[in-house]
User: Fold this.
Amino acid sequence: MKKVVLVFVFLLCNQSIFSQKESTVISFKNNESAPIINRNIYGHFAEHLGRCIYGGFFVGDTSKIPNTNGVRNDVVAALKDLKIPNLRWPGGCFADTYHWKDGIGPKENRPTIVNQWWGGVTEDNSFGTHDFLNMCELLETEPYLAGNVGSGTVQELIDWVQYVNFSGKSPMSDLRVKNGRKEPWKVKKWGVGNEAWGCGGNMTADYYAGEYRKYATFMTDWSNSDNIMRIASGANSVDYNWTETIMKNIPGNMLGGVALHYYSVIDWGKKGEDVNFAEDIYFKTMQQALKMEELVTKHSAIMDKYDPKKNIALVVDEWGGWYDVEKGTNPGFLYQQNTMRDAVLAGSTLNIFNNHADRVRMANLAQCVNVLQAVILTDKTRMLLTPTYHVMKMYKVHQDAKLLLISINSPLYTLNGESLPALSVSASKDKNGLVHISLVNVDSKKANTVVIDLNELGIKSVSGIIITSSKLQDHNTFDNPTKIQPAVFKGFQIKKGKLELEIPPFSVITLEGK
Ligand code: AHR
Assistant:
């Protein structure tokens, strides 16, 4: 009998041990000095590359695909729902080959251009300045134009600024009116070249800084207030010398932002497949993606030396996962599918940007439609929303909200003797007092449990949305476009003001508390 009782007690003890999950506590720090998360962190990128513009955004006004002035209505509706704050155009590498005057006036008179960087295809310039800026109005988004410094001239760029921005009488504004647009578009965001260290002209940082000063001197919004935002072509990944040289040599009043480009690539020679990847490849992709934390920290620290008041923004105007193109597609078109790996990558990266909102005030996912980590894929008349789209939509609540400073000691995700932080979190409070907390579990196998003290945040009730699936490689296809979509998240309980939630492996959650 004694033996039976002992076994029973042992089982009971064990039972309680097993039900006590290891949990990670997320706590909130003093928030007085926290910045606002600039909505422009949620920007997008549209380059003349593959099927991004032609077939993606633009089908022409004679297409049987429903469109407004040639722009697909389905794409516009989906992007409006995402509340995209800005859209960068026309490149990328394409920008430094683009001569904007070829893309205005009657379409039948426009010269062609050979897209030397992307597949060598010949374009008819049917999507030009008016088409793009009118499309931005349709999307209710702010245009971000990338000027041609590599193969253009100062005169060509300042003519473009005058063409789109000047309301008075001038040669360029007269031309704009003749082409059917009376009011200027008043474009504020201007990139002064792209990747000047590479496809933008293979310049040294010193040489580019001199070129920038020259271009920026003549670029104005033509209102005598000079309030356009000029953005310098920035560093490639860890090129800290580039940022240092730009910051040292360009006067602060000429610089609105300094760019940074970083793609999560496991190996530039062998990027790996978009869908058929193994767990070790997923791990390596996430290793690369999480390096964004170190990059923005170190580039920001350099900027702090020259600009302690943080007037100049760090603009990560190209980021995302980059894999080998989908089999059977043009290698120059950079078309790839988008899986749960991309959802995790997007959530983790956006958490990094949110948490660095004091300096990272603009970013552009590369790219918007049919290229790299796209939020939308199209196939003739059909369109699908990718897992990355759904993450961007879940995160739009952070746009212009006040960052909440967080402290977390993440558990590790370990594979083959290497480790990564398994959890990534960011949070904000919007102007209506709603708190949003976005959490990513990077671990591919293990669910992680998190505890948040709601009393600290003055929250009484919580709801949540999750993106999850059974396999990392899962994705939406044109035949099954809703395999992955957000669902209501119920995996939490509130006990004595403490929220305990279990985040499934490779999933992204956004909670709303009030
Ligand atoms: O996004 C694809 C290309 O990557 C861009 O054109 C270029 O700026 C970068 O190298």
